[in-house]
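Sequence only, no structure available. Ideas?
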Amino acid sequence: MTNPKGARAEWAEHARAELKNAGHRSGGARSAVLELVAGQDCCLTAQEIFDALRVDGRDVGIASVYRALELLTRMGLLRRIELADAAGYEPALPGGEHHHHVVCERCGKVSTFEDAALERAIDRLAHRLEYEVGGHEVVLRGACADCRR
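Reply:
I predicted one. Tokens follow.
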């Protein structure tokens, strides 16, 4: 991703417009979740989102966070990534920019990576299978350097 902050700001604007076009009102938990996720570098779990909103003084219930995440995911505005013990959520950028994740199965640490060779391999595989791939998710699992020591 060449300009992650710019892309996330663009995503937030796009997401607000899509919500409005779908007839959803602005404000409340949905807007709080959207703003928080737009400011992150990587995926967050529902609990992490809830905790961050509470720390910021937002009076948002955990059920409202889950409802907002479900709606934003269903509308294609968020990507849901299966992590070690929970799902993480991050913006589904309109331009298709994305990164992948590696998860430590011991401590739960999540790291991101980009790999042009992997993207080319996925494109070659799609061509060989005669599929038009609209998106993909790569999550590698293992043990981080700290946990292997």
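The helical segments are 4-21, 28-38, 46-55, 62-74, 116-129, 145-148.
Hope that gets you unstuck.
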